[in-house]
Design a protein that fits this description.
Layout: H1 2-20, H2 24-29, H3 36-62, H4 67-75, H5 77-110, H6 114-129, H7 133-160, H8 166-173, H9 183-207, H10 212-239, H11 241-244, H12 250-258, H13 260-287, H14 297-313, H15 316-364
Helix pairs in contact: 1-7, 1-9, 1-10, 1-13, 3-9, 3-10, 4-5, 5-6, 5-9, 5-13, 5-14, 5-15, 6-13, 6-14, 7-10, 7-12, 7-13, 9-10, 9-13, 9-15, 12-13, 13-14
Length: 365
């Protein structure tokens, strides 16, 4: 159980920087649909749990240290090449966005020069990646309980200080910009975008566990925790929609509403989210090319980290921003492939079970 919770916590920690950091993502994909956004959160929770379970189990069964083997196995030579290339590109791109975002957060909350803030995050990321993969999973997972605690405090405050009626909040929420035409597509796009970013390390995390059932439970736990976070943040912003409407970083605004000290705690949580995602993305990117036990791995970590820092300074983040929507469509292709792989595994296990049952009956007769 402990190992499953570690994998689940690391799954949450990995996804959280790309999908939760500002609160704007939850606003556009869930809160903007009003009450139906809550239903979208439940749908997303179930989808994350299923996909997390399947990807972690695939990594465990194949005992891989990179996503490449699993992607080619479940999608074939040609589609596998395309998915592998795009996933690898986005791993680097999302990590670069985290470097740039951490610089902005350090500047906004603590008055530190953005470049210095980015250097701090790059240094922490490189130092972490020089550890072994199990230590990395433990570090990423350790931030999750802290984040859940801060979000829960914000939720309780928001509910007890709600100034709007439910119908007023529902109407005002629906006036906010939405990322999709309806709540159902919004929930699926959100899951798709995040799975496209997180699948690689989830496969790698599964590969560190020999028992596929333990790995699968970790994916389920992580999916449920992600869903719970979506619902908590969504409810907190929904009941205080009059406060966060039009704000770039709604979660930080809600924290500052409580007390500046809570705002500082939330800023630390935001930096923790970005750190988690940067570490996870860069690790998965590096092991795509270098085995973690090879002599080339640690020098490669330093080179990749410095390249990511340079990219965050020369406008690479704007390029990644333009192609972020593409990640949703990549995610749909990946989700379809994962579902097909799950169906095939179920049929194979059923066939094996029937075969062994047949043999047993023959031996008895």
């Amino acid at each position: 159980m402990k190992r499953s919770l570690q994998i689940g916590g690391a799954f949450v920690g990995l996804i959280i920087g790309a999908g939760f950091a500002s609160g704007q993502e939850i606003m556009q994909y869930f809160t903007s649909f009003g009450t139906l956004g809550l239903v979208g959160g439940i749908l997303a929770s179930l989808a994350f749990a299923f996909l997390g379970m399947t990807l972690a189990q695939l990594g465990s069964e194949m005992q891989v240290n990179s996503h490449k083997g699993v992607i080619y196995q479940i999608s074939g030579r040609y589609l596998g090449f395309i998915l592998d290339f795009l996933i690898t590109f986005f791993l680097f791109g999302v990590a670069v966005v985290m470097f740039a975002g951490s610089g902005s957060t350090f500047n906004q909350m603590f008055g530190i020069d953005p470049m210095v803030g980015s250097i701090i995050m790059v240094g922490l990321t490189i130092a972490t990646l020089l550890l072994n993969v199990k230590n990395i999973i433990n570090i990423i997972a350790s931030v999750t309980p802290y984040l859940m605690g801060v979000i829960f405090v914000i939720l309780i405050y928001s509910i007890f200080t709600m100034d709007l009626s439910w119908s007023q909040a529902d109407n005002l929420a629906k006036e906010q910009p939405a990322a999709a035409g309806n709540w159902f597509i919004g929930a699926l796009l959100y899951v798709s975008y995040n799975i496209a970013a997180g699948a690689a390390l989830l496969i790698v995390m599964g590969g560190t566990e020999k028992d596929s059932k333990v790995a699968g439970r970790g994916g389920i736990f992580g999916g449920i925790m992600l869903g719970l976070l979506i619902i908590l943040i969504n409810v907190a912003m929904f009941v205080k929609i009059d406060v966060v409407a039009g704000v770039d970083m709604p979660t930080l605004e809600l924290a500052n509403q409580i007390h500046p000290a809570v705002g500082v705690l939330m800023s630390i949580a935001l930096l923790g989210m970005m750190y988690n995602t940067a570490v996870g993305m860069f690790y998965a990117f590096t092991v795509r090319f270098f085995a973690p036990e090879s002599k080339s791995f640690k020098p490669a970590v330093i080179v990749v980290g410095l390249a990511g820092f340079a990219a965050s300074l020369v406008g690479f983040t704007s390029l990644v921003g333009k192609v972020y929507s593409t990640m949703g469509y990549l995610g749909f292709a990946l989700i379809l492939v994962v579902i097909v792989a799950w169906i095939r595994r179920k049929k194979l296990k059923q066939s094996e079970s029937m075969y062994f049952k047949h043999l047993s009956n023959r031996e008895v007769s």
